[in-house]
Design goal:
By secondary structure, the protein is of the alpha+beta class. It contains two helices and four strands, in the order E-H-E-E-H-E. Strands 2-3-1-4 form a four-stranded antiparallel β-sheet, with helices on one face.
Amino acid sequence: MRAIFVMIKCEMGEAYRVAREAADSIAQLSELYSTSGQYDLLGKFYLEPEQDIGLFVTDAIQKLPGVKDTYTLITFNAFAAASGDAQGNR
């Protein structure tokens, strides 16, 4: 599985409805956060290696009622802190 992050801009007043709809209908959704700034939601999705990212975003996310725009971040590697505190101190 590979992770992608999608920032979602919603129509005015639609962010919570879009979030509920995404949580209920997109199996690949791992986490979804409300955010401040240009975009209203940030979603983390896990896709199969052979799954087409562009097709997934346009079919599963951009077609949700109330979605105005998206910005997709493709990830390469995941890093975790070593045992110790959040800064990786041992």
